[in-house]
Design brief:
- The chain contains nine helices and 13 strands.
- The chain is an alpha/beta fold.
- The protein folds into two domains: about 140 residues, Periplasmic binding protein-like II (D-Maltodextrin-Binding Protein, domain 2, 3-Layer(aba) Sandwich); about 110 residues, D-Maltodextrin-Binding Protein, domain 2.
- α2 crosses α9.
- The termini are far apart.
- The N terminus is likely disordered.
């Protein structure tokens, strides 16, 4: 906790010396900050200050407190849960890309090899926990109770598992820490950005991967309602939705990060 507090203090100190006209954008290191760095090269006239956010720092709190002007790291269901938790309204400036959630293992080459009473690490935050359970269901490992049909609306917890034929033990872990648990569990459900940071290639390494079509978990550029019409935010949103950035995402991440439709 002390380390997180010191990290946050150092981060806020660095933000205080930002250029007055720079658009301060908080982002996860991979792939979000990398994409923003490409945007900066693509559009030199857009003055960005890209702040890579370490684990344990809530980018939405930074945005709510005015420490940054926008953030780029999350999907809409997570943003909705954050608005409720923080009592704060935010605004979506652009929908940019999808990072398919994946199931990984260091112990097994296929899901069929997972033993009875195997262990499965899943994210412990509400939206990604539910998302993980739907992915396990899509791959035939569990079945959720009737009524859980829409992953973006019907949020599931382990209590909502109706059938668990392999008697899998669900372990809830903080999302950034899950890759480190791969050697200790049979399966791990990992967010795309954390998989990439750990050296995994979702399109190649995942034993089960979310489909891109109809996926409600596209990553978004988020700002405040007050800044939604700021020319800098609007230009960044336009750049992120451009064919050039879509091409960069497609070529750089080889199916592990998927651009949404361009403008």
């Amino acid at each position: 906790m002390l380390k997180t507090a010191l990290t946050l203090a150092a981060l806020l100190a660095s933000l205080s010396v930002s250029a007055a006209d720079a658009l301060r954008v908080a982002a996860d290191p991979i792939p979000h900050a990398q994409i923003l760095e490409y945007v900066q090269k693509l559009d030199p006239g857009l003055n960005l200050k890209i702040i890579e956010i370490p684990s344990g720092v809530n980018s939405n709190e930074l945005l709510a407190h005015g420490d940054v002007d926008a953030n780029y790291f999350q999907h809409l269901p997570y943003l909705n849960s954050q608005e409720q938790a923080l009592g704060q309204k935010f605004a979506v400036a652009a929908t940019v890309h999808i990072e398919p959630l994946g199931i990984y293992s260091h112990r097994h080459a296929s899901l069929a090899q997972v033993p009875d009473k195997g262990t499965v690490a899943v994210p412990n935050n509400v939206t990604n926990l539910s998302r993980a359970l739907y992915l396990l269901q899509a791959n035939g490992l569990i079945t959720l109770k009737p009524g859980f049909n829409d992953a973006s609306k019907d949020q599931a917890t382990p209590k909502d598992i109706a059938e668990n034929p392999k008697h899998l033990k669900i372990l809830e872990i903080e999302s950034p820490q899950i890759p480190r648990a791969l050697d200790d569990v049979d399966l791990a459900v990992i967010n795309g950005n954390f998989a990439l940071e750990a050296g995994l290639q979702p399109a190649r390494d995942a034993l089960g991967l979310e489909k891109a079509e109809g996926n409600p978990y596209a990553n978004i550029l988020v700002t405040t309602p007050k800044l939604l019409d700021d020319p800098r935010v609007k230009q960044l949103a336009k750049d992120l939705r451009s064919p050039a950035v879509a091409k960069f995402i497609t070529e750089t991440y080889a199916g592990s990060v998927i651009p949404v439709a361009t403008e």
